[in-house]
Amino acid sequence: NAGVMQNPRHLVRRRGQEARLRCSPMKGHSHVYWYRQLPEEGLKFMVYLQKENIIDESGMPKERFSAEFPKEGPSILRIQQVVRGDSAAYFCASSPPVQGIQETQYFGPGTRLLVL
Amino acid sequence: QKEVEQNSGPLSVPEGAIASLNCTYSDRGSQSFFWYRQYSGKSPELIMSIYSNGDKEDGRFTAQLNKASQYVSLLIRDSQPSDSATYLCAFDPDFGNEKLTFGTGTRLTIIP
What value does the mean pLDDT take over residues A37-50? Predict the structure, then answer.
């Protein structure tokens, strides 16, 4: 039973380029969450998606960042015109449909983005 | 701003002793609490979840929740060198809203 999959594991971009991060949730999970972890800091929530819907994007920067979770295929976190401050580890988590109480979120291995 | 406070450490504990990790949170309405372990350069992995006041035990790990004091802790008995990691506590600040708020983590080192 495969866990949450993310690719690429490492991504190097120059300032101004685009970064595209992918996440495939665990089998049977329909909820996807993206978190960002800056060096020596905790995880910060960015966005919560279900298939074809953005449920909560309150943690997402208003500009340059977007996320989607299409009907078919992985969830994509897209960062346009990257800047050095975007360098971080980006983790995707997934959970089964919520039934009353918060379901456990399982994390993928992360994508480490380095902006030169 | 709904927050989680953790002592960043580092916390050093001799092998075989009990490691005690603490976390306070700001939102009285929170219902779900989680402890994650994160090895350096790796992703967080779930250790324990707790939803009710009191203790919850799983092997060498015991989570304790006190909603009145807005306090959650994690005890690790018979600490092993492999327990050396950063421990993150997290809670659901808006019941049923699914997003988690994480603390900055406590770095634990088990000394052989």
Answer: 89
- Please state whether beta strands B101-102 and B19-25 pair in parallel, antiparallel, or not at all (unpaired): unpaired
B92-96 contacts at long range (C-beta below 8 A, 24 or more positions apart) = B92/A102, B92/B30, B92/B31, B92/B32, B92/B33, B93/B2, B93/B27, B93/B29, B93/B30, B94/B29, B95/A102, B95/B29, B95/B30, B95/B31, B95/B32, B96/A98, B96/A100, B96/A101, B96/A102
Q: Which pLDDT band, with edges at 50, 70 and 90, does B32 fall under?
A: confident
Calculate the CA A60 to chain-centre distance: 10
Question: Which residues from chain B sit within 8 angstroms of residue A55, using beta carbons?
Answer: 98
Kindly list the residues from chain A whose CB atom is less than 8 angstroms away from the CB atom of residue B45: 107
Distances in Å between the Cα of A6 and the Cα atoms of A52, A94, A113, B6, B15 are 19, 11, 12, 28, 35
Token code pair at residue A7: 């690719």
Please name the residues between 23 and 62 in chain B that touch chain A, using a CB distance below 8 Å: 31-32, 34, 36, 42-46, 49, 51
Q: In this predicted model, what pLDDT tens digit does every residue of A93-116 receive, in sequence order?
A: 998 876 666 678 899 999 999 999
Question: Residue A1 above 70 pLDDT?
Answer: no
| Alpha carbons B112 and B110: distance in angstroms, whole number | 6
